[in-house]
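Researcher: I'd like a candidate sequence for this fold, 102 residues long. If you have to choose between options at a position, lean toward the conservative one.
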């Protein structure tokens, strides 16, 4: 599992164990497919606590591979900072399958 090394605004992402869907940990401890619902940690201590809760969910077989990701804020709208995480959160950058046929 990833260690907390980044600084600034952070959120925890993982994959839902049953569906494989990319999810973000919410302030209430549940998981959401929406980054807009993610709990944002602004300190290293808050990030560690957020990751600890996510690791407990990993151990309980709810999610797979929780990791901290850097978040940028546009107004009050969070978005993953790095392209890889934006693609994980929002989907591929090109249409494929049925979407490509339309």
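Model: Candidate sequence:
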């Amino acid at each position: 599992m990833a260690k907390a090394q980044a600084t600034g605004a952070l959120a925890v992402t993982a994959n839902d164990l049953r569906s494989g869907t990319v999810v973000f940990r919410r302030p209430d401890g549940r998981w959401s497919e929406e980054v807009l619902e993610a709990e944002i940690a602004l300190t290293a201590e808050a990030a560690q606590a957020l990751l600890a809760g996510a690791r407990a969910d990993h151990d309980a077989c709810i999610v797979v591979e929780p990791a901290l990701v850097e978040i940028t804020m546009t107004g009050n709208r969070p978005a993953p900072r790095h392209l890889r995480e934006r693609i994980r959160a929002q989907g591929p950058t090109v249409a494929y399958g049925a979407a490509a046929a339309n």
